[in-house]
């Protein structure tokens, strides 16, 4: 006969951002509920609500951690900006793809965490600026880069057919980065 071990008496471990994010990342984020996450953490859902107000709050914490993981430690330069962005795209590919449901969540319309999203935005815009783009062009290039990578990853991880055979992220990133201008296009083409 197997005896159950008694639970130790006293207060359970305090929750922190890392514990909540680690437990959430072990779940399928498309179906994650506050109650499921609380159970995974071994706390009541009311204890979890003291940390985050709702499911969006969980995603805010996850976004903070994900942005910390994907941003390259180095700063882009005029000669390294494409390599810097390629590194960022591949880190997004690896980190977002490692968590079931995360790429699809990020690709779907939702409220973004202003702190982590702002940090990612500012670093990417800076990469285009050091490459010689005007502030307006850097902003447009950020939009194309961010939307392109996130939508590709979301489509891939949602199981959408991205063409015959296996879609190659390396080809996508190469074409995307070669196509992003660092200066305004000339007006040689009629509208």
Automatic annotation (TrEMBL):
Record keywords, A-Z: DNA-binding, Transcription, Transcription regulation
UniProt keyword Transcription regulation, yes or no: yes
InterPro entries: Cro/C1-type_HTH, Homeodomain-like_sf, HTH-type_TetR-like_transc_reg, Tet_transcr_reg_TetR-rel_C_sf
SUPFAM superfamilies referenced in this protein's UniProt entry, alphabetically: Homeodomain-like (SSF46689), Tetracyclin repressor-like, C-terminal domain (SSF48498)
Organism domain of life: Bacteria
Gene3D superfamilies per UniProt: Tetracycline Repressor, domain 2 (1.10.357.10)
Molecular function per GO: DNA-binding transcription factor activity; transcription cis-regulatory region binding
Keyword Membrane on entry: no
Protein name (Swiss-Prot/TrEMBL): TetR family transcriptional regulator
Organism listed in the record: Gordonia asplenii
Biological classification of the source: Bacteria, Bacillati, Actinomycetota, Actinomycetes, Mycobacteriales
